[in-house]
Specification:
This protein is mostly beta strands. The chain folds into two domains: 50 residues, no CATH class; 190 residues, no CATH class. The protein contains two helices and 14 strands; from the N terminus they run H-E-E-E-E-E-E-E-E-H-E-E-E-E-E-E. The chain is elongated, with a radius of gyration of 24 Å. The N terminus is likely disordered.
Length: 249
């Protein structure tokens, strides 16, 4: 039997008010709303005393790996790439819908002090683990990779491998089968790449308590429209793409 004075409309409005709030608990429960790629939901957490409601309670895991580059195995030494060295100083992920100059989350703050040096062609596994980071649930549409400078950067002994890229004078390069070194350049003025996250349905949806796996694949192409590749010291430009490897768990 419904108690006296019970008002169904007021009760429904009260429930909606609790669900709509992302910062206030309703009773001893906490309601946190989220939206990922158009699909919304509510995370409910109960406790006594009530938990503090914050968006930080809805988080997921982003794992990023770098794919080994495929090169020509039967090319003449002048066109054979034996090493592709890169020096990664930063990796950020971008929140969908934010301005392109804002909305970036740093996945690898430790790289600022200790950059990650990789050889994407030599004796490396097919996938190289880069990071596993906890970020707020939401939708993400791009990765930004920041590289070390190609200009001389002080003492070569500061590098983990001073013998690469002409004795440590550069950070990113191709080493050819005939002993030549090709510096890797960038399309813009800064030493970075911004790569869209490409999935079958668009950007990456990251729901609470899930894991998303991203794979970065880098390569190089000539910065000019030359007909003969990798000859005469022509500049090579670093390019890449990001794929959602196995969706979310």
């Amino acid at each position: 039997m419904r108690p006296p004075g019970y008002d169904l409309t007021k009760s429904a409005l009260f429930a909606l008010a609790c669900l709509a709030s992302t910062t206030v608990g309703c009773g001893n429960s906490c309601f946190v709303g989220y939206s990922a790629n158009g699909n919304g939901g509510v995370v409910v957490k109960a406790g006594n005393p009530p938990p503090v409601c914050t968006l930080d309670q809805a988080r997921g895991n982003v794992q990023v790996a770098m794919a080994k580059s495929v090169t020509c195995q039967d090319c003449a030494p002048v066109a054979e790439v034996r090493h592709m060295f890169i020096e990664l100083h930063g990796l950020q992920i971008h929140s969908y819908g934010e301005d392109e100059d804002a909305g970036w989350l740093d996945l690898t703050p430790e790289f600022a002090k200790k950059p990650l040096e990789l050889d994407l062609v030599g004796e490396t596994p097919a996938d190289i683990h880069v990071t596993s980071s906890i970020v707020p649930a939401g939708t993400y549409d791009a990765l930004r990779l920041q590289f070390g400078p190609n200009a001389p950067a002080g003492e070569s002994e500061a590098r983990a491998n001073p013998e690469r890229c002409n004795g440590g004078k550069g950070s990113n390069c191709l080493m050819m089968g005939d002993g030549r070194t090709q510096e890797l350049s960038f399309a813009g003025r800064t030493d970075e790449l911004v790569l869209p996250i490409a999935g079958s349905s668009g950007p990456l949806p990251l729901v609470p308590d899930s894991t998303a796996r991203l794979q970065i694949r880098l390569g190089a192409r000539q910065a000019t429209e030359a007909s003969v590749p990798l000859l005469e010291g022509l500049p090579m430009r670093l390019i890449g793409e990001v794929a959602i490897q196995r969706g979310t768990d």
